[in-house]
Amino acid sequence: MTMKRKIIIITIIAQCFIGSCWVSAQSKNWLSYDVGAGMSTGDDPLFINVSTVVVGYKRVIWKDRLRLQPALEFGSSWKGMKTDLRDEVTNSLRLKLSLDYDLIYYKKISLNVAAGGFVGYSRTLKGTGAEFNSAMSSDIMFNVSEYSDAFNCGALLAAGIRIVPWNKECAFRITPLSLCVARNRLEFRALIGLDVRLNGKEANTKK
Fold first, then answer.
1. Beta pairing partners, 54
2. In a designed cystine with 58, which of 7, 38, 67, 203 is the match (CB 3.0 to 4.6 A)?
3. Which of 39-43, 78-82, 106-110, 194-198 shows the lowest per-residue confidence on average (mean pLDDT)?
4. 19 within a domain of the structure (yes/no)
């Protein structure tokens, strides 16, 4: 066998090995999407309606059951249940980092739990510019809207069901309990989500 043929064979073997390693690594990468709604409470005793959209990335770090997830969360909240105070709308952006784990696994369904933390920024608009404050007097009007900004951080806890179809290229999540705990505020939310494996390949690890 000539040196040229040896080099060609070694090159082919190396390419096959590198390619298989790349597929194995890529199979551990997911994109995740969530939408949800809920309520929150804090210093203000009023409940607040909350709507949430989350876009994230997941990396499998153990047996395709433990995943690290950084994510961006976009949320809006507004006061509800009482009409005698000024309208208040808050938009928020959060950077989240959590661990996602399939605690109990049976066939294609798992009990999925998650825990982590977040840092965020929110901007609040109080008033529409022409409101009566009926709590004080119907003769008093707010003619100017007010804005306020805030930075916050806190902890995340969630529990739900994760369903993986036979091809393992995606996963569906139903999360009836998702909590965000921050200073003087607690949010309760229910979420539905979709995970999509980036390269559509089945992980090489076995559950």
1. 34, 73
2. 67
3. 78-82
4. no
Instruction: Count up the domains in the chain and report the number.
Output: 1
Q: Judge whether 205 lies within some domain.
A: no
Tens digits of residue pLDDT in 92-127: 899 999 999 999 988 889 999 999 999 999 888 877
Task: Quote the tokens at residue 113.
Answer: 């739990």
Among 44, 45, 38, residue whose Cα is nearest residue 73: 38
Q: How many CB atoms lie within 10 A of CB 20?
A: 11
What are the strands, taking DSSP E only, across 80-184? Answer: 88-106, 109-126, 131-133, 137-142, 146-163, 170-182
Residue 187's domain comprises 29-197
* Within a domain: 66: yes
Q: What type of residue is 13? A: I
